[in-house]
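Quick look at the format.
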Amino acid sequence: MNDLSPTGCTNAPVLRERGQHEVFCGLTGIIWLHRKMQDAFFLVVGSRTCAHLLQSAAGVMIFAEPRFGTAILEEGDLAGLKDANDELDREVARLLDRRPDIKQLFLVGSCPSEVIKLDLARAAERLTDIHAPHVRVLNYSGSGIETTFTQGEDACLASMVPGLPATDAHNLLLVGALPDVVEDQARDLLDRIGLPQVSVLPAPRADGAPSVGPNTRYALLQPFLGDTSAALDRRGATRIDAPFPFGEEGTTLWLKAVAAAFGIAPEVVDRVTEAPRARARKAVAAAAETLSGKRITFLPDSQLELSLARFLTRECGMEAVEVGTPFLHGPIMAPELALLPGGARLSEGQDVDKQLDRVRADRPDITVCGLGLANPLEREGLTTKWAIELVFSPVHFYEQAGDLAGLFARPLRRKAILSGAPSLRCSSNMPGSGAEPRRVP
């Protein structure tokens, strides 16, 4: 199955929808980015609602001191009655005085600048002048009006690219945030293939930022990094076209594409990866027993949808009914489209009511969607999978291939168990009612 011939869904029509959408906002990316960059701080300029979202979604313990916070805008700020720039300068000064370990400070807008009455790009330039060289201040938008939740990472990394050091060296750059253990696996595979000098964006610390120049070749680790890719292109770097490293096939093709960009033969990749490929195939096969022949629909949420659909159809034997994605980046997704079996309905963007009508008509075995849509669909008897779990779970490269397949197999196994098991129901749920539970056939 290691064929990149232009077939599949390359020329398939795409249904483009621009209606009501239901996704988390780009602020959500802070939850994994603040753990990845050890000397960075994310200051969200927004409302109390934004503060509550981050606090609850991140699950911060009471004694933790995370690397994010919220500069809360009050009514006077939003009405333009106060000089929000003066207030922001004061809060940043207080933050940096308290946290001298901060080397990169991201000002993250929770809404467009016309709503929050602040030009955060100019504010970042001004604050960099004030606090340089100790701290570099950057900005990006995490607004739910402008971004879906994975695009927060894209906007963050894109904001870093113009300030990366320049180089003329021939170097490899991996782009995208992965759990440390998965990143280590990728580095180990590349080292054994013959590419020991690998840098990653984002780097753990500001002083380890990767260098970029006309001889840089970069490989994306996440499908949602279109703006970051464009920023690297403007710096003269060249993207390595490849499917994304999900599953045994995707990982192998990704590694071969990277190797080819540096003149390393595919036979070297085959020899180095023989054992992990076998482990991945065995692990995926266990889940494929449940997934094979099942029909799946992806509602647009994370931009992982095309890559995951390719993995599930080609390696797990599933049938893709509809594959929806918030934005279909043609050049980046071309290798995935070539491999995705024909027949799937492709859609870009979202119109919630229309898409839900199609789900109800199609009745797929499993629907991948956001949290806000999962419970209503479950109530209607449709099995769902939370899209956000696929972003927070380690799912890249060989050692996680079985876990990735298992994330889709578990809801189907759970449904099968529950549908065949007797349930208990009480005639009254009042304490002390004395009601005996009766078995429902």
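Next, a different chain entirely:
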Amino acid sequence: MRWVYFGKLYTTKFQAGCLAKRLEEDGWIYGYHDPRAVEVYQSKKGRYGVKFIP
């Protein structure tokens, strides 16, 4: 399985964490059914993003 990177980067880890939690709980909104793993990562420029395995 491969990671799917959500298309937006956020300035704070809190913002990315909120999206990660929403993906875990309400993945059907984005067209995914219960992702296997959801993770917050930090880019090389210091911004935060969300990646998940559908």
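Strands lie at 4-5, 37-42, 48-53.

See the schema section for token definitions.
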